[in-house]
Amino acid sequence: MKEFISHSDNETKEIAFNLSKLLKKGDVIEINGDLGAGKTVLTKGLANGLGILQTITSPTFNLVNCYDCPNGTKFYHFDLYRLVDIEELYVLGFEDIFNSQDNICIIEWSKIAEDLLPSETIKINITKISSQERKIEVVGL
Question: Which residue has the higher pLDDT, 62 or 70?
């Protein structure tokens, strides 16, 4: 397990930027933490580290956004916070997305889909220490 303390959004992005260098095609990453903990901030840092220049936004209402990495990898960003019925994931084609060795998948609020994630899923937990400080724990990377 890797553990980091971030004192700002910029530090969280920098930590994620550096972690992105360890990612490879086929990786699935679940990011958990309370509302406002910095899950999307961390995702922005991961995307930037993979060379994605587009603005990364949380897909809270459409459940998933897809971005192209310069090396041809697809970067899927899921936000399952409002997901009520797991069947919605099947409509999105999540199995093909999660199991493709050409994709990197980030999943916020993954609890509803935990049983569907690959066993080698990388887990990142963000805990609020104070209004600005966060503890970031990474397992499996």
Answer: 70
Strand order in the sheet with 64-68: 2-6, 134-139, 122-128, 28-32, 103-108, 74-79, 64-68
- Cβ-based neighbour number of residue 10 at 10 Å: 11
Q: What is the pTM of this model?
A: 0.93
Cα Dmax for the chain: 39
User: Rounded to a whole number, what is the distance in angstroms from the first to the last CA of the chain?
Assistant: 8
Q: Which residue has the tokens 């700002």?
A: 8
State yes or no: pLDDT of 124 exceeds 80.
yes
pLDDT level of residue 84 (50, 70, 90 thresholds) = confident
The one-letter code for the residue type at 17 is: F
User: What's the number of CA atoms in the CB half-sphere (13 Å) around residue 93?
Assistant: 6
Residues 6+ apart with CB under 8 A from 5: 129, 133, 134, 135, 136
In this structure, the number of other CB atoms found within 10 A of the CB of residue 50 comes to 19
- Mean pLDDT in residue range 94-108: 89
**What's the CA gap between 115 and 52, in Å, rounded?**
29
